[in-house]
């Protein structure tokens, strides 16, 4: 699985790219730290707002953690047609690799709610084969 992904749901494009952060990791203590950059782009003609998030994080042992909450990085961005919003976040893991996927809960200016898919991507050390 690649360390990046892209999905489009109802004209909201979600692109993610992850990378390993060696400086924040402590493999001797069972901690591997990964950062990921997300870009949301409204490629349609309807204003849409991100309301909440749902992440599914699976470590290298198959343990699953789900994270839900309002907005992203303390924001609930509104994306007018053509707008982009990006942010960077991080995920510590107890294994040297894992995967993430999920969805953003969105609402249109007309009040329609939908889940914008976050396609699966890997969290892994550079040049590692799993």
From TrEMBL:
SUPFAM superfamilies: ApaG-like
Domain ApaG: 6-130
Pfam family, one: DUF525
Cross-referenced InterPro entries: ApaG-like, ApaG_domain, ApaG_sf, Uncharacterised_ApaG
This protein's name: Protein ApaG
């Amino acid at each position: 699985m690649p360390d990046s992904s892209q999905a489009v749901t109802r004209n909201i494009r979600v692109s993610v790219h992850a990378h390993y952060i060696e400086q924040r990791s402590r493999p001797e203590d069972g901690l591997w730290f990964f950062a990921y950059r997300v870009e949301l782009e409204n490629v349609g003609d309807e204003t849409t707002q991100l309301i909440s998030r749902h992440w599914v994080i699976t470590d290298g042992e198959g343990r699953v953690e789900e994270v839900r909450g309002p907005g992203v990085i303390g924001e609930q961005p509104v994306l007018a047609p053509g707008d982009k919003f990006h942010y960077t976040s991080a995920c510590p893991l107890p294994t040297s690799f894992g995967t993430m996927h999920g969805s953003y809960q969105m609402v249109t200016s007309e009040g329609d709610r939908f889940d914008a898919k976050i396609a699966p991507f890997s969290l892994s050390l550079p040049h590692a084969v799993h």
